[in-house]
């Protein structure tokens, strides 16, 4: 099975996240990998992103430099890993592998993956209490942690309710911590999660 890839793969990538475009085969005796390349078709023009041959690995498109890689030292795995996904990365990606057989003939196979990059809004956050829970003795150390998912980076803000409204707290990270709780720390706390 030179390329056990049939049909077209569809992948949804999360903006600013990373994704792997599959391209694998089972190495077999009598066939030597000569070259492998990845190209992308966007707006009806095709460009080569990556090529691996006897002279090494080459990345041709500058906007993919430092963002794409192919596993090294794993024969049969030509999958393309793209990091820090950008909106213009959407497109049709084709993996092409060329083998030389023992009688010196060349065999070429390719597989295409359609990639769509989506922006995912931050979800409504949840708040987790530390081991001590939400009813805590004075003087104890404790914390609240805010968790949300979506396209990174996600920023967090904490608020505390006061009579007549909410007041922002100094903490801007996912965790709101107290070294030594005072009775005056009792109250209702809110967390807000946001991304671009």
Automatic annotation (TrEMBL):
SMART domains reported in the protein's UniProt record: IG, IGc2, IGv
Record Gene3D superfamilies: Immunoglobulins (2.60.40.10)
InterPro entries from the UniProt entry: Ig-like_dom (IPR007110), Ig-like_dom_sf (IPR036179), Ig-like_fold (IPR013783), Ig_sub (IPR003599), Ig_sub2 (IPR003598), Ig_V-set (IPR013106), VSIG4 (IPR039939)
MF terms in GO: complement component C3b binding
Residue ranges occupied by any Ig-like domain in the UniProt entry: 17-112, 125-196
GO biological process: negative regulation of complement activation, alternative pathway; negative regulation of interleukin-2 production; negative regulation of macrophage activation; negative regulation of T cell proliferation
PROSITE patterns in UniProt: IG_LIKE
Pfam family for this entry, one: V-set
PANTHER family in UniProt: V-SET AND IMMUNOGLOBULIN DOMAIN CONTAINING 4 (PTHR15466), V-SET AND IMMUNOGLOBULIN DOMAIN-CONTAINING PROTEIN 4 (PTHR15466:SF2)
Name of the protein described by the UniProt record: VSIG4 protein
Gene encoding the protein: Vsig4_1
